[in-house]
């Protein structure tokens, strides 16, 4: 789970497994696997970092895989 901030400054927790796409329009928009879209204050890069940390914590991706993607 990752904590994010809506445009009205309310914070919420999202299960990152349901994220399909993250885009900046310029506001960061997260599209979930069910098609729902959520606009957040967090930057696109901050959301990606939170998602990667979550994936590492639950064992979906290893630190080695993350480092290889950043180098390549």
From TrEMBL:
<dbReference type="Pfam" id="PF06289">
    <property type="entry name" value="FlbD"/>
</dbReference>
<dbReference type="InterPro" id="IPR009384">
    <property type="entry name" value="SwrD-like"/>
</dbReference>
<protein>
    <submittedName>
        <fullName>Flagellar protein FlbD</fullName>
    </submittedName>
</protein>
<keyword id="KW-0282">Flagellum</keyword>
<keyword id="KW-0966">Cell projection</keyword>
<keyword id="KW-0969">Cilium</keyword>
């Amino acid at each position: 789970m990752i904590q994010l901030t809506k445009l009205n400054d309310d914070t919420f927790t999202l299960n990152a497994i349901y994220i399909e796409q993250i885009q900046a329009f310029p506001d960061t928009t997260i599209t979930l696997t069910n098609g729902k879209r959520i606009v957040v204050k967090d930057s696109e890069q901050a959301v990606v970092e939170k998602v990667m940390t979550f994936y590492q914590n639950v064992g979906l991706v290893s630190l080695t895989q993350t480092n290889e993607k950043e180098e390549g």
